[in-house]
């Protein structure tokens, strides 16, 4: 069974750094792209970027390029989303999602990680 | 950047057919997929590659894509189908989501 398990909710202050995780199981983690999606409170889905854990090839949405860093550690089947300096506007639910082997769509999703940034 | 446009809301009576559109320039040249998201839950893929249903998705969900518009159709809509629906396409190595449509079953 394919599973993506994300790290828990975080409460941070503006300017803090943060790294959240997404652990894959039930499939060949190194062979499938993992994407990250933001959902701000009461808003729609926004695609942030994607990584291929096998060689760490990473693509970013222009909106998020330079704002976050996506990485992966294939030795522990885990992808990461990282901020160096959080802003209040980063408050959102963040989902990881596997890209299907057969096309550019996400067939399995993590449970989401709520990040709250507040002073 | 590529944009996908969805109506903010669609209403349907139980048992009737709901149609949710997604518009984008030459969208028919791309594959489109659709996700369903219920409150407090992660999105679920309901249609991929324009019209394919993943395992476990009821047959009442179908999709099409031609010209500049993709359509998600729910036949015999049930109360359990009330949710937000998002279309998604791929352009220049990035994924693009539509703004989402809230489907109300009343």
Describe, in short, the structure shown.
The complex is a heterodimer of chains A (119) and B (106). Chain A is mainly β. Chain A is built from no helices and eleven strands.
Task: Outline the structure in words.
The complex is a heterodimer of chains A (119) and B (106). Chain A has 119 residues and is mainly beta. Chain A is built from no helices and 11 strands. In chain A, strands 2, 4, 5, 6, 9, 10 and 11 form a 7-stranded mixed β-sheet that branches. In chain A, strands 1-3-8-7 form a 4-stranded antiparallel β-sheet, with no helix packed on it. The termini of chain A are far apart. With 106 residues, chain B is mainly beta. Chain B is 0% helix and 47% strand. Chain B has strands at residues 9-12, 18-23, 32-37, 44-47, 61-66, 69-74, 83-91, 94-97, 101-105. In chain B, strands 1, 3, 4, 7, 8 and 9 form a 6-stranded mixed β-sheet that branches. In chain B, strands 2-6-5 form a 3-stranded antiparallel β-sheet, with no helix packed on it. In chain B, a hairpin with a 2-residue loop joins β7 (83-91) and β8. Chain B is globular, with a radius of gyration of 13 Å. Chain B starts with 8 loop residues before the first strand and ends with a strand. The mean pLDDT of chain B is 96. The chains are: A mainly beta (119), B mainly beta (106). The interface between A and B is medium-sized, with 24 and 25 residues.
